[in-house]
Amino acid sequence: MPITHPPPPVTRLGLLKGFMAIFIPMCLVLMIIGAMHYYTFYTTERSSIESRELLNVDLAKRMIEKDIADVVSDLLFLAEHIERRGLPEALPWSREQQISEEFKIFAKNKGFYDQIRYIDNTGMEVVRINYSNGESRVVPESKLQNKSSRYYFKEGLALDRGYIYLSPFDLNMEEGEIEFPLKPVIRFGTPVFDSHGEKRGIVLLNYLGDRLIQNFTRAAANIADHIELVNNDGYWLSSPRQEDEWGFMLGHEARFQKNNADAWRIITENNKGQIQTESGLFTYTTIHPFVTTIRDTASVQEITEIYEGTGYYWKIVSRLSSRELSATLPLFIQNHSALYFAMLLLVMGVAWLLAYSQQHHRAAMAQRDYEQRFRYTLENIELAAVTLNLKGEVTFCNDYFLKITGWNKHDVIGRNWLQQFVPDELVSEIDGIIRRMPDPDIFPLRYESEVKCKNGEHRLITWNNTLSFDADNHVIGATGIGEDITDKRKAETDILKLSQAVEQSPSVVIITNDQGLIEYVNPKFTEVSGYEPAEVLGQNPRILKSGETSQEEYKDLWNTVINGREWRGEFHNRRKNGELYWEGAIISGIRNSEGKITHFLAVKEDISERKRLEAEVEKQHRDLARSEVLAAMGRMASMIAHDLRNPLSSVKMTLQILSKQLDVNRDSEVRELCNTSLEQIRYMEEILSDMLTYSLPDALKLEWLTIDKIIDMAISLSQRRIDENRIKLVINYHPGLPTLYADATKLRQVFSNLISNAAQSTESSNDPMVVIDVMLELGLEGTAIRIEICDNGCGIDKHEREKIFEPFFTTRAKGTGLGLAIVKRILDQHQANISVTDNTPCGSCVTVVIPVRHQVISDESAVNIQEKVT
């Protein structure tokens, strides 16, 4: 039953009126904030502009003063250089020429002096260097001029030692005319004295003013479009408008004070400062070129007298028009338009939300009244009822929910459902369901989950979920009405677990009716027996009989289970494919509520592997016992070899010496006795050697070798016996034989022994033959070589085949019975197999299978393994 009750309808006109009532006052507030912001921005920007103008004007002044100071330094250096050279006195022409060359180099290196001259006290040029287009040139004596009538000579010669003459900054003139292109110059001069302190002339430098103006402009590059250099009469020496420059030289009256009279009056009255007029903002400072040339040691009084005496100065002025100052408003708009546009949108959004909220408030109140009536209904049903909002918080629960969970109402309302009532392992899953609540298409209307009770227990509840909607059809929550199915589901779960336990049991489970007919088998039964359930249902378990279990055992089985006891025992049954296997079984009766047996339950386990392991352990016990016997035999063989070999060797040597000293004709019988004795001694030595070889086997010396060479060598070792018995030997080497990783010497011994035995077994045959087949064998355990040695002799009895590889067992009158035992020992070291079968129509075949590569295990390691198994 959905909780849907729309609020009263909201008209667009009412929503628009509410929006405008909120939006207009908020816009007024935003405008006031913008005005205050602009005022703060304007004052900050104005302060920044004024500071920037002052800084750049000061930098320009420092650059001009530095340039003048550099020229003064060069001038004093040249004057001192002339005095040290003795040029003021009457000099030979060579010294004068030398100074000219030095001045020429100086002018070229500096690059900003138009002329460098030395003029004596009569006004005659003694040395003159002209610089033009990157080249400095010495003026010949014939072209030197007398400058006694020029103002700069007179004023410069009148100075005392160390004082500098500085001409006004103007344009250079040649022959009374202004030189074009315009060449601004400043003349610097200082007197020169001889060694007696007499004034003998002046050094004069014509400084190219373009360099000073360029440095001035570069120093104030940030304000180059509105900075000016003006002389004390208001004429421009440097201006962004080049047509206004040098008015006092070019004859036009373009002066600063013409358009800025008020500003000029204040600028001339003060040394530096900043003023604002109707024309704009003026930033200015003053340069006194003559004061700049004064030595550092000059007194304040001397500086003041020079300054007041000349009255010559320059003004550096930067001018920002009122229009440029008012450019802060467009800049403010450019920098902050996006911000205020975003704020306007925000104001619109907030106004709309507030208006929307007001209009929907009445609808929300009506919705709340409806939900209260709905909850009253939920309080009276015998089912759990819980309401969650979109955050997963509980907004309602009925008394029945509190009853089954044990919580109090104040422990539930307002609490987060995930944190309070959902088990930890289900939090992620339930959280995903709550997150899907806003989308009705994917929100589950039915769901089962556990709920935590106050006492810590979990109750399983199946919920029928109903979404709640607001007036705009948006989901605002969900109400779940649930049924407690904990006990019901527990019973179902127990049955399911029992069923799964039987189905997944590693043991065979069979249930029969009281007549012994199969009604159920689990999957393990099919896995073990090979029978499908459809093949055995309704059948008697006797279909598995192999015939090896007696009737008495079956009779005892039925008597035990019918009497209500368990029967435990073993069956040797047969699988569907005919293979025999062992089963350990427990069989008991299943009783109904009245105690009557209605079914029989058999739980069985395949114990074939256990039986096999028990047999293997028993075999390992036998092998261990045999190893202990061999160890004792080894000790005995060592003792016999030590105690008997030396006496046998002495007897053998004596018989050999005796046989050589006998007369062939007279002592033939004695010689025959000696030979017989020697043969018996050699036979005894062979017995001792076989005993030592078998009881104390050597370690393998492994190498890669080919089987054909091993067999060929073994044949050559047995050739004497083959020839004696006139045996026909047939050898077949199949193609593709790989190399072996084995001990060549021991394998030769193996095959030599086997070939000799095959040859001996054909002694009674009319047409003796031995056939050797060598082939490649691919098996589950890897690649191997199979060697078959077959003969057509008398063969080996079936009962004797099981003993022929045991030590000291032999079917011949003469022999130790260790040959085949040694063969078996060597092949075991190579992890090879040997077997004996009948050869049709007569004789026997010995088959040897040797792996191509194997891991050799020593006898001692084998014994240790057997000890661990047992």
Automatic annotation (TrEMBL):
<keyword id="KW-0067">ATP-binding</keyword>
<dbReference type="GO" id="GO:0005886">
    <property type="term" value="C:plasma membrane"/>
</dbReference>
<keyword id="KW-0547">Nucleotide-binding</keyword>
<dbReference type="InterPro" id="IPR000700">
    <property type="entry name" value="PAS-assoc_C"/>
</dbReference>
<dbReference type="InterPro" id="IPR004358">
    <property type="entry name" value="Sig_transdc_His_kin-like_C"/>
</dbReference>
<keyword id="KW-0902">Two-component regulatory system</keyword>
<feature type="transmembrane region" description="Helical">
    <location>
        <begin position="20"/>
        <end position="42"/>
    </location>
</feature>
<dbReference type="Pfam" id="PF00512">
    <property type="entry name" value="HisKA"/>
</dbReference>
<dbReference type="InterPro" id="IPR036890">
    <property type="entry name" value="HATPase_C_sf"/>
</dbReference>
<keyword id="KW-0597">Phosphoprotein</keyword>
<dbReference type="GO" id="GO:0000155">
    <property type="term" value="F:phosphorelay sensor kinase activity"/>
</dbReference>
<dbReference type="Pfam" id="PF00989">
    <property type="entry name" value="PAS"/>
</dbReference>
<dbReference type="InterPro" id="IPR001610">
    <property type="entry name" value="PAC"/>
</dbReference>
<dbReference type="InterPro" id="IPR048760">
    <property type="entry name" value="VP0354-like_sensor_dom"/>
</dbReference>
<keyword id="KW-0812">Transmembrane</keyword>
<dbReference type="InterPro" id="IPR013767">
    <property type="entry name" value="PAS_fold"/>
</dbReference>
<dbReference type="Pfam" id="PF02518">
    <property type="entry name" value="HATPase_c"/>
</dbReference>
<dbReference type="Pfam" id="PF21623">
    <property type="entry name" value="HK_sensor_dom_bact"/>
</dbReference>
<dbReference type="InterPro" id="IPR003594">
    <property type="entry name" value="HATPase_dom"/>
</dbReference>
<dbReference type="InterPro" id="IPR029151">
    <property type="entry name" value="Sensor-like_sf"/>
</dbReference>
<keyword id="KW-0418">Kinase</keyword>
<dbReference type="InterPro" id="IPR036097">
    <property type="entry name" value="HisK_dim/P_sf"/>
</dbReference>
<dbReference type="Pfam" id="PF13426">
    <property type="entry name" value="PAS_9"/>
</dbReference>
<keyword id="KW-0472">Membrane</keyword>
<feature type="coiled-coil region">
    <location>
        <begin position="603"/>
        <end position="630"/>
    </location>
</feature>
<dbReference type="InterPro" id="IPR003661">
    <property type="entry name" value="HisK_dim/P_dom"/>
</dbReference>
<feature type="domain" description="PAS">
    <location>
        <begin position="370"/>
        <end position="441"/>
    </location>
</feature>
<keyword id="KW-0175">Coiled coil</keyword>
<keyword id="KW-0808">Transferase</keyword>
<feature type="domain" description="Histidine kinase">
    <location>
        <begin position="639"/>
        <end position="854"/>
    </location>
</feature>
<keyword id="KW-1003">Cell membrane</keyword>
<protein>
    <recommendedName>
        <fullName>histidine kinase</fullName>
        <ecNumber>2.7.13.3</ecNumber>
    </recommendedName>
</protein>
<keyword id="KW-1133">Transmembrane helix</keyword>
<dbReference type="GO" id="GO:0005524">
    <property type="term" value="F:ATP binding"/>
</dbReference>
<feature type="domain" description="PAC">
    <location>
        <begin position="445"/>
        <end position="497"/>
    </location>
</feature>
<feature type="domain" description="PAC">
    <location>
        <begin position="567"/>
        <end position="619"/>
    </location>
</feature>
<dbReference type="InterPro" id="IPR035965">
    <property type="entry name" value="PAS-like_dom_sf"/>
</dbReference>
<feature type="domain" description="PAS">
    <location>
        <begin position="494"/>
        <end position="540"/>
    </location>
</feature>
<feature type="transmembrane region" description="Helical">
    <location>
        <begin position="338"/>
        <end position="356"/>
    </location>
</feature>
<dbReference type="InterPro" id="IPR000014">
    <property type="entry name" value="PAS"/>
</dbReference>
<dbReference type="InterPro" id="IPR005467">
    <property type="entry name" value="His_kinase_dom"/>
</dbReference>
